[in-house]
Design a protein that fits this description.
This is Protein kinase domain-containing protein. It is found in: Membrane. 23% of the residues lie in helices and 20% in strands. With 513 residues, the protein is of the alpha+beta class. The chain folds into two domains: 175 residues, Jelly Rolls (Sandwich), CATH 2.60.120; 223 residues, Transferase(Phosphotransferase), domain 1. It starts with a strand and ends with a strand.
Length: 513
């Protein structure tokens, strides 16, 4: 920092980060300045002698005279060095008379030294000020460094006689930060911050751990399947946190645990399978939509032998619901998009959201006409759902899987109207015939699911029927020659009339495979 005298307060051309904020690299062009600097940085460009000196500057940061910071001790009769950055308060005397400028420094409690540190006899203050007015003050700059500079008190006068002596006892105490204390304080702050961060991390980890205990993994297929969904938290509690004491066994896709649900839930004791997600695809490894394999052209075409096996799987599932379960279960939504495939492409009947149960020997109480367009039996709106309406939907499902065509299609290109694959003529003919029998327009003419299973397995002969048999094929008679008896192709279309859905089957006979 520096004490200065100037003829003006215009320091716009001075460099704020260097040269005490009074000069620039070229000196002082617009403002004439006399400065006494206490410099703690060595600048080679202004010829500083060291980084701890006192200098006299006239219109330039290059000192006309400078000396290492020190004072003359009358008691010791020698000069004693001082460290300007020590933090200890010092006293500075600047005396000017005639053309002589003396500068002295000493510790705050010392008297003024008898010998000045700097003495210049060529300072003409009149040339510097050039007027009746002058300005005195303090200025400083530290560049990129950080330094605390304090002026605790000062006294100025045009004559030595009227200069007031500074009463050191009345000066405020200068802050004297210790580097050790600063280091300790910073270290304490850092440790405190780390401790707070650690505590917050532990709390967040505990929160996430507790959340993960009850976290649910929901996959895309669940948007379509899974009519009843228990919260994972309920299943976690029901199995006592999947305790080993409740462990029942291990299957191909995970472990099975015994669970006890709350009393307000009708089904109290359940088996809960905890599906393993170690595989790359998670639950997608367990299920996929049959509908996607039939109609998504980005997936490989299912070969006929897989289709035939899937049809048998679903026939067994539906037969179980109709004849073997404790109560009769009417699924009411048989269709390809409700059939799931496991990793081995075994068929699994899903989505029981619209299913209904009733005791054996009793009439089903449901009359609501629900289901998917194209799979709904024509009597559904008048007689309601029953096992035979499920059989009708299963018949449409048989035809759909075999032909690779949806029951209702609009604007299908010619090249996509048939599935190109190798197949067994005998098996395909059998499945198509079973599908037509199940989709008979007359409910009483449809087979039971027990019969359907037998037909598909080839254990019993199917009844003979023709395109013009009641409830089979086209609604208008069609005549065919005796030579056209081998089945070639089948297509389906739908028509809606009088709020009832009818599936019209057209069978083309002719020479072929």
């Amino acid at each position: 920092m520096a004490f200065f005298v100037s003829h003006s307060t215009d320091f716009e051309e001075a460099q704020p980060s260097r040269y005490f904020g009074l000069f620039n690299a070229n000196g002082s062009a617009s403002t004439r300045v006399l400065a006494v600097e206490l410099d703690i940085a060595k600048a080679e460009d202004v010829l500083d002698i060291n980084d701890n000196h006192v200098g006299i500057d006239v219109n330039s940061p290059v000192s006309v005279q400078s000396a290492n910071a020190s004072y003359y001790s009358d008691n010791e009769v020698q000069k004693i060095d001082m460290k300007l950055v020590s933090g200890d308060p010092i006293q500075v005397w600047v005396d000017y008379e005639g053309t002589t400028l003396n500068v002295s420094i000493a510790p705050l409690e010392n008297h003024k030294p008898s010998q000045p540190l700097l003495s210049s006899t060529s300072i003409n203050l009149t040339e510097i000020v050039q007027g009746r007015r002058m300005f005195v003050g303090f200025s400083g700059s530290t560049g990129s460094g950080v330094v605390n500079q304090y002026v605790l008190g000062w006294s100025f006068s045009k004559s030595m006689a009227s200069l007031q002596k500074i009463d050191v006892s009345k000066l405020p105490k200068a802050p004297h930060p210790s580097s050790k204390n600063n280091y300790t304080s910073v270290l304490f702050d850092v440790l405190l911050g780390l401790l707070a961060f650690l505590v917050l991390g532990l709390l967040f980890g505990a929160y996430m751990y507790r959340g993960n205990l009850y976290a649910e993994v929901k996959e895309e297929w669940e948007n379509v399947y899974g009519p009843l969904r228990y919260p994972y938290k309920s299943l976690y509690k029901a199995t006592k946190g999947f305790s080993r004491s409740e462990f029942l066994g291990k299957g191909g896709f995970g472990e099975v645990y015994k669970g006890t649900l709350p009393k307000n839930i009708e089904l109290r004791e359940v088996a809960v399978k905890k599906v393993s997600h170690e595989g790359e695809e998670g639950l997608k490894q367990f299920v996929a939509d049959l509908d996607g394999y039939l109609f998504n052209h980005d997936k490989p075409t299912l070969p006929w032998w897989r289709r035939f096996a899937i049809l048998k799987d679903i026939s067994l599932a539906l037969n179980y619901l109709h004849t073997e379960a404790d109560q009769v279960v009417i699924h009411r939504d048989i269709k390809a998009s409700n059939v799931m495939l496991d990793a081995e492409f075994n068929g699994r009947l899903g989505d029981f959201g619209m299913s209904r149960l009733y005791e054996r020997g009793a009439d089903p109480t449901t009359t609501a006409a629900v289901g998917a367009v194209g799979y709904m039996a024509p009597e559904l709106t008048t007689l309601g759902a029953s096992t035979v309406t499920d059989v009708y939907a299963f018949g449409v499902f048989l035809l759909e899987v075999t032909c690779g065509r949806r029951p209702v299609e609009l604007g299908v290109p010619v090249e996509k109207r048939s599935a190109q694959m190798e197949f067994s003529s005998e098996e395909v003919e059998r499945v198509l015939k079973v599908g037509l029998l199940c989709a008979n327009l007359a409910p009483d003419a449809r087979p039971s699911m027990e019969q359907v299973v037998q037909y598909l397995n080839g254990n019993v002969l199917m009844p003979e029927f023709w395109p013009y048999s009641p409830g089979i094929g086209a609604l208008t008679p069609t005549l065919f020659s005796p030579e056209q008896l081998s089945l070639k192709s089948l297509s389906m279309s739908s028509s809606l009339s009088n709020n009832s859905m009818f599936i019209t089957h057209t069978i083309n006979y002719g020479s072929g495979r």
